[in-house]
Design brief:
The chain is α+β, with helices and mostly antiparallel strands and 99 residues long. Helix content is 20%, strand content 22%.
């Protein structure tokens, strides 16, 4: 009979010291854009390895990030629409390879 499942952090992992943890899945371009947007909000503490997905999600990847984000009131600023680019999701999906 297997031992009862221990629900908690692995003793091999470093202790978590707080921060925002984010698991993301998407195309490489989507992950790059989301990572860039999140790093504006805080300091990158941990950047995981991008892992490719398989099957119906071929062409997409998963990524883990941990950020230190200030929780105090931040000044509001207008969105900066210069230099940004929108991702054409229909075009990105059309270029995905089937499993």
């Amino acid at each position: 009979m297997p031992a009862p499942r221990r629900d908690g952090a692995s003793p091999r992992d470093p202790h978590l010291t707080g921060g925002l943890e984010v698991w993301m899945t998407g195309t490489p371009a989507e992950l790059d854009a989301a990572t860039a947007a999140l790093t504006v909000a805080g300091r990158m503490v941990q950047h995981g390895t991008r892992r490719p997905l398989t099957g119906a999600d071929a062409g997409r990847h998963r990524l883990y990030l941990r950020l230190a984000v200030a929780t105090g009131k931040q000044p509001t600023r207008a969105p900066d629409n210069t230099g940004g680019a929108l991702i054409d999701l229909d075009a990105a999906r059309a270029h995905r390879r089937p499993a």
